[in-house]
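This section describes the prediction task in plain terms. A model, or a person checking by hand, is given the sequence of a single protein chain and must write out its three-dimensional structure as a string of tokens. No templates, partner chains or ligands are provided. The sample shown here is typical of the held-out split.
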Amino acid sequence: MAGKTLFSRSGYESTSTAAIAREAGSSESQLIRYFGGKAGLLEAIFNDGWTALADAVTREVAESRHGRDAILRILGLMIDAFTHDHDIAFLFLFEGRRMRGATHEVVLSKGYVTFMELVLQLIHKGQEDGSFRKDAPAPVLASAMLGCAEGMLRERILAERQGRPQPGDDGEVRKVFAAMVNGLAPEA
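The expected answer:
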């Protein structure tokens, strides 16, 4: 919790392991022992957050009759998760896929990979049930949908942090996302 809060408020680079340990009432050696350092802690935070979201998506995969409807519900799950936990929302949307370290690699957490695999399953399901077009590869559709959702949610967080008016409420975000998802249906 301490790492999540500090990374979100001060940024990953500006947050030291000493500050995290102090905030957690622990020691740097314990943080390093359990997580290997702040990179390992950040990965653990991402895994926990994405795994929780993936668990909810798993239920949608099992319960949905149509891929399109499940994808629309996933946006609702993301909005709910990000509304209840502003820190994880910031980390997912701003720190989640940044280059890190000397190799400048983007490290994707296992939780994110699992989440994306589930989204791809729903898109394949939608292609089979006729709710998504088949002439575009599922990974392209997934990228378009996730990019749209993340972009709208990212703008809301930026506006909040900068003291600007929100660019849209939950209903407006859902409406625009639904229009975009409907545009990925097969052509008549």
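For orientation: Residues 120 and 139 are 7 Å apart (CA to CA).
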